[in-house]
C-alpha cells in the first residue's frame, strides 16, 4: 500500500483485507476509534486501518443523505460526503430528466457519483466526468457496489475538454468550495458558471446545479430557475435549459410539489390577521411569496419581511400556517409575563427582521410550564413586534 498515492490507498480498501476491515469498523463510534485502531494495527497495515475507519466515519455521516442501506455500502471522500447531492433531490432531478425524454446524460463534475447513481437507477446511461483521480476511483467503486456499472462510465478528465455532443443532456455541478471555504461568486465556481452555461446551451437539455443564494439577476434569460427544498431545508438551485426559459419555480420534497412563478406584483402590506404563514425556504429564495399570498388571500406584515398574514386558514403545501393569539410590541418583560400567565414551558422562537438570537430570548424569559407556544420576532409595518401563537390545526 502506497501512503503517498491516494488512489492506491483507496484501492487497498477494495481488496479482501480492506473489505474485512470495513466490516470490522462498521459500527465503531467516535469514542472507540482509537482503541479499535490500536487493536487492528497489530495485524493489519496502519494506513489501511486508518482508511477503513475514515470510511466508516464518512458512511455514518452519509446516512442522512443516502439512507442507511446505500451509505453502508458506498465509498466517500472527505469532500464528497459533504458536497454530494442528497439522494432524494438527485432522484427528483433524474425524474425530471426522464420526463423530458432524456436517456443519456454527461454528468460533468460528478464527484463521488450521487447524481450519476440516481440517473442510472432511472434507466439513464451516464458519462460521469471528474478531473480528480481519487474522486473518479470512488465514483467507479460506487457504481460497481450498487450494481450500476453497466450504466455509469466514469471518465477522468477536465470537463472543459469533454465532447458531450452524443448525449441527450448535460448536467454540471461546479465545485463551489475553494481553499478558503464556500465560494459565492458564480464566476469563481470551478468551472465558472459562464462556461457551464455555454456548455448547457450546446446541449438539447441541460441542468446546472448552483448555490441557492445566487442573485436572480445572475440567472440567464434563456434558463428556467428552480429552487429545491427537502423537508423544509433549501438544498440547491438549478438552472434548466431546453425547458421553459424565464420560468421561476420552487419545488418542495417530498412530493414533489412545484409552485410556478406568475410574475405577480409584491403583496399589499396589511395589519396582522388571525393567521400567519411562513413560506418554505425554496419559495422565499425563488421570490414567490406573492404567489403564496395570493393563494391564501393574504398580505405582508412588512414590505421587507417574508411573513404572510390572512384572516382565514387556507391549506397550502408552500407555507406553514400558525394561529396568532397575541400581538405586542417588542418587550421581553411583557413576553415573559405573558408566557408565565399561559404556563408556556416549550417555546419555539422564529425570527425575520430581528437581531435577537432565539437562545438569548429563551434565557431571558425562562419558560416554565406544561404548554407550548411559538413566538415570532419580526416587524409589523416597520415596528419591532412579537407575535405569539401555535401551529394551525
State the main characteristics:
393 residues, alpha/beta, Rossmann fold, 3 domains, 9-stranded mixed sheet, 7-stranded mixed sheet, 18 strands, 34% helix, 26% strand
Task: Round the mean pLDDT to the nearest integer and report it.
Answer: 94
Largest sheet: 9 strands, mixed
Radius of gyration: 25 Å
- For the record, give the distance between the C-alpha atoms at the N and C termini, rounded to a whole number: 61 Å
Determine the fraction of residues in helical runs and give it as a percent range: 25-40%
* Inertia-based shape: globular
Taken together, the total number of domains comes to 3
Could you name the ranges where pLDDT drops below 50 across 5 or more consecutive residues? none
SSE class = alpha/beta
Q: How many DSSP helices? A: 13
CATH class of the largest domain: Alpha Beta
CATH architecture of the largest domain: 3-Layer(aba) Sandwich
- Main-sheet strand order equals 3-2-1-4-7-9-8-10-11
GO molecular function, one term: methyltransferase activity
Pfam family, one: Methyltransf_15
InterPro entries: RNA_cap_Gua-N2-MeTrfase (IPR019012), SAM-dependent_MTases_sf (IPR029063), Thump-like (IPR041497)
Domain THUMP-like: 319-391
What secondary-structure arrangement, pairings included, does this model have?
Elements: H1 6-13, H2 16-24, H3 33-40, H4 46-71, H5 78-83, H6 87-99, E1 104-108, H7 114-121, E2 125-130, H8 133-145, E3 152-156, E4 169-172, E5 177-178, E6 181-182, H9 193-201, E7 205-210, E8 224-230, E9 233-241, E10 248-253, E11 257-260, E12 275-279, H10 281-285, H11 289-296, E13 299-300, E14 308-310, E15 319-329, H12 332-342, E16 344-351, H13 358-365, E17 371-380, E18 383-391
Parallel strand pairs: 1-2, 1-4, 2-3, 4-7, 8-10, 16-17
Antiparallel strand pairs: 5-6, 7-9, 8-9, 10-11, 12-14, 12-15, 13-14, 15-18, 17-18
Amino acid at each position: 500500500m502506497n501512503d503517498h498515492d491516494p488512489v492506491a490507498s483507496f484501492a487497498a480498501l477494495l481488496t479482501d483485507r480492506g473489505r474485512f476491515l470495513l466490516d470490522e469498523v462498521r459500527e465503531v463510534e467516535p469514542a472507540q476509534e482509537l482503541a479499535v485502531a490500536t487493536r487492528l494495527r497489530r495485524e493489519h497495515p496502519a494506513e489501511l486501518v486508518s482508511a477503513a475507519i475514515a470510511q466508516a466515519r464518512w458512511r455514518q455521516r452519509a446516512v442522512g443523505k443516502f439512507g442507511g442501506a446505500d451509505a453502508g455500502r458506498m465509498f466517500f471522500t472527505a469532500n464528497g460526503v459533504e458536497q454530494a447531492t442528497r439522494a432524494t433531490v438527485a432522484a427528483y432531478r433524474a425524474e425530471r430528466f426522464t420526463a423530458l425524454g432524456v436517456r443519456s446524460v454527461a454528468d460533468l463534475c460528478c464527484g463521488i457519483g450521487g447524481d450519476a447513481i440516481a440517473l442510472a437507477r432511472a434507466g439513464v446511461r451516464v458519462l460521469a466526468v471528474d478531473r480528480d483521480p481519487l474522486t473518479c476511483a470512488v465514483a467507479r467503486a460506487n457504481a460497481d457496489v450498487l450494481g450500476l456499472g453497466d450504466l455509469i462510465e466514469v471518465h477522468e478528465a477536465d470537463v472543459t475538454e469533454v465532447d458531450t455532443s452524443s448525449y441527450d443532456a448535460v448536467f454540471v455541478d461546479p465545485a463551489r468550495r475553494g481553499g478558503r471555504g464556500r465560494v459565492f461568486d458564480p464566476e469563481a465556481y470551478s468551472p465558472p458558471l459562464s462556461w457551464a452555461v455555454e456548455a448547457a446551451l450546446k446541449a438539447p437539455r441541460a441542468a446546472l446545479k448552483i448555490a441557492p443564494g445566487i442573485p436572480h439577476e445572475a440567472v440567464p434569460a434563456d434558463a428556467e430557475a428552480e429552487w429545491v427544498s427537502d423537508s423544509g431545508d433549501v438544498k440547491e438551485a438549478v438552472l434548466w435549459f431546453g425547458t421553459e426559459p424565464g420560468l421561476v419555480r420552487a419545488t418542495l420534497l417530498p412530493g414533489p410539489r412545484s409552485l410556478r412563478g406568475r410574475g405577480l406584483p409584491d403583496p399589499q402590506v396589511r395589519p396582522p390577521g388571525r393567521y400567519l404563514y411562513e413560506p418554505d425556504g425554496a419559495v422565499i429564495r425563488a421570490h414567490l411569496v406573492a404567489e403564496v399570498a395570493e393563494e391564501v388571500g393574504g398580505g405582508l406584515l412588512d414590505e421587507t419581511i417574508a411573513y404572510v398574514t390572512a384572516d382565514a386558514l387556507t391549506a397550502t403545501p408552500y407555507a406553514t400556517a400558525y394561529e396568532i393569539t397575541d400581538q405586542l410590541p417588542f418587550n421581553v418583560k411583557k413576553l415573559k409575563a405573558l408566557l408565565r400567565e399561559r404556563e408556556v414551558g416549550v417555546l419555539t422562537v422564529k425570527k425575520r427582521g430581528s437581531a435577537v438570537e432565539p437562545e438569548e430570548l429563551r434565557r431571558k424569559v425562562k419558560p416554565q410550564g406544561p404548554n407550548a407556544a411559538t413566538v415570532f420576532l419580526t416587524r409589523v409595518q416597520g415596528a419591532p413586534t412579537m407575535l405569539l401563537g401555535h401551529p394551525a390545526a
